[in-house]
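Internal tracking record. Fields below are filled automatically when a chain is submitted to the structure queue. Please do not edit lines marked as system-generated. If the sequence contains nonstandard residues, flag them in the REMARKS field before resubmitting.
Queue: standard
Priority: normal
Entity type: single polypeptide chain
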Amino acid sequence: MIEIFVGGFALSTTEMELAQLFSPHGAVASVNITKNRITLQSRGYGFLEMADQFDATRAIKALNGVFIDGRRLTICRADKILTTSALFQLNEQQAILIKKKRPITALL
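SYSTEM-GENERATED OUTPUT FOLLOWS
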C-alpha cells in the first residue's frame, strides 16, 4: 500500500469525493480526512492509500496542483512530509525551526 498526502481541499470535501477524484487513476484502498478533535470539522487535509505504486505515482502527477472548488491541491507521498505527530517526537527547539522552515542542522 502506498500512502498519499492530500492537502488544501475545501473543509466541506468528503472522503467519498476524494476517493472519486483518485479512482480514475487506480484502486483506492482507504481515505482518511484529518478532523479537529473537538469540532470534528475537516482540517483541509488527509491521507489515502492506493494498492499499486504505479497508480499512486500516476495519480500524484496528474492531481498535484489541480484546483478543486477554487483551492489548489497539494498531493505527495505521505513519507515525503513531516506530519504533526512527528513534531511531537522532536524537542521543542527542533520543532520551532521546522515551523520556521529552517533546517534542523542549524542546531548542530
